[in-house]
Amino acid sequence: MMQHVVLFLLGAHLASAGTHSLRYYYTAVSGVSDFPEFTSIGLLNDQQFTYFDSNTKRTVPKTEWMKQSVGADYWDSETQIDIGYHQSFKNNIQVAMKRFNQSSGVHTFQQMYGCDWDDQTGETNALQQYGYDGEDFLSLDLKEMRWISPVKQGTLTVDKWNKNTALLERDKGYFSTECIEWLKKYLQYGKSSLKKTVSPQVSLLQRSSSSPVVCHATGFYPKDVTISWMKNDQEHHEDVEVGQLLPNEDGTFQKTSTITVTPEELKKNEFICVVEHQGKTFREIPKDDSLPIGIIVGVVLALILSAVIGVVVDKVYQKKKGFKPVNASDDGSNSSARTDPQA
């Protein structure tokens, strides 16, 4: 979603020194009646700043700094682009289902794209990928400027798109220039907000005395956080599962770490959940009594909702830094998005 803009020389005015990222995630869903057919979210430094879904049919800001920085023309343009993506993705999910010999069921067709910029070294990076049902489907090799697919069902699209030299040149320009320009522009918009530091709220959740203990840290920013367990003042890694980082609606983040331990072990030993964030340490000790089931269910539902609304596609690409270009129109609109060909 990037138009031609004047490069912003942010220098010392950046939100924070280091690597900055701009990401867009698109998800089409079939076979689920209570969830939008298509959703689109944009994230700057992992903070959600735009949102669209096929039910509301309107792209909206998710941060105050974005709301105050651009006018109605921007949101009108973004809305039209996202509506176009909705139609394209409805087609693509049907194409993918045919390629995989499927006629019904719950399926997802996803795309992620974006770019990274190191404000100290000037180094840039970018990636564009598609996924189907949680697996890699297509990706753009930006060094070779060609599409590749790890599955035979993607071969037809790879052949089709690799013959489209105009598309490849557009992608090359977007990822090397336009995406970085918009990344810097958004950093300028959100420089005050992105400097903020918010400490996590830490709580321990346990459905019953025999259930795993969940250490839940939420409401923190920036995203870097470490959750660990100690047993009798020693680091403890056995039967510990660390959850995925998830976004909250207000731009903060949440994360969990679950430890499986018997009631007898809890009574005989002291277990401590240790959360470290921005130089501060928070400790919580499991109590012998368990929390009411209603509280647990509410927390679990909140976690699930955040995962879906926030970065549902991130799990598909969790080992990769992904991004795909939003296409700038040739006449230079004020939108940072672009349309793509059908599979």
TrEMBL record:
<dbReference type="Pfam" id="PF07654">
    <property type="entry name" value="C1-set"/>
</dbReference>
<dbReference type="InterPro" id="IPR036179">
    <property type="entry name" value="Ig-like_dom_sf"/>
</dbReference>
<protein>
    <submittedName>
        <fullName>H-2 class I histocompatibility antigen, Q9 alpha chain-like</fullName>
    </submittedName>
</protein>
<keyword id="KW-0732">Signal</keyword>
<dbReference type="InterPro" id="IPR050208">
    <property type="entry name" value="MHC_class-I_related"/>
</dbReference>
<keyword id="KW-0325">Glycoprotein</keyword>
<keyword id="KW-0393">Immunoglobulin domain</keyword>
<feature type="compositionally biased region" description="Polar residues">
    <location>
        <begin position="330"/>
        <end position="343"/>
    </location>
</feature>
<dbReference type="InterPro" id="IPR011162">
    <property type="entry name" value="MHC_I/II-like_Ag-recog"/>
</dbReference>
<keyword id="KW-0472">Membrane</keyword>
<feature type="transmembrane region" description="Helical">
    <location>
        <begin position="291"/>
        <end position="313"/>
    </location>
</feature>
<dbReference type="GO" id="GO:0009897">
    <property type="term" value="C:external side of plasma membrane"/>
</dbReference>
<feature type="domain" description="Ig-like">
    <location>
        <begin position="200"/>
        <end position="290"/>
    </location>
</feature>
<dbReference type="GO" id="GO:0006955">
    <property type="term" value="P:immune response"/>
</dbReference>
<dbReference type="InterPro" id="IPR037055">
    <property type="entry name" value="MHC_I-like_Ag-recog_sf"/>
</dbReference>
<comment type="similarity">
    <text>Belongs to the MHC class I family.</text>
</comment>
<keyword id="KW-1133">Transmembrane helix</keyword>
<dbReference type="InterPro" id="IPR001039">
    <property type="entry name" value="MHC_I_a_a1/a2"/>
</dbReference>
<feature type="signal peptide">
    <location>
        <begin position="1"/>
        <end position="17"/>
    </location>
</feature>
<feature type="region of interest" description="Disordered">
    <location>
        <begin position="323"/>
        <end position="343"/>
    </location>
</feature>
<dbReference type="GO" id="GO:0005615">
    <property type="term" value="C:extracellular space"/>
</dbReference>
<dbReference type="InterPro" id="IPR013783">
    <property type="entry name" value="Ig-like_fold"/>
</dbReference>
<keyword id="KW-0812">Transmembrane</keyword>
<dbReference type="InterPro" id="IPR011161">
    <property type="entry name" value="MHC_I-like_Ag-recog"/>
</dbReference>
<dbReference type="InterPro" id="IPR007110">
    <property type="entry name" value="Ig-like_dom"/>
</dbReference>
<dbReference type="InterPro" id="IPR003006">
    <property type="entry name" value="Ig/MHC_CS"/>
</dbReference>
<dbReference type="InterPro" id="IPR003597">
    <property type="entry name" value="Ig_C1-set"/>
</dbReference>
<dbReference type="Pfam" id="PF00129">
    <property type="entry name" value="MHC_I"/>
</dbReference>
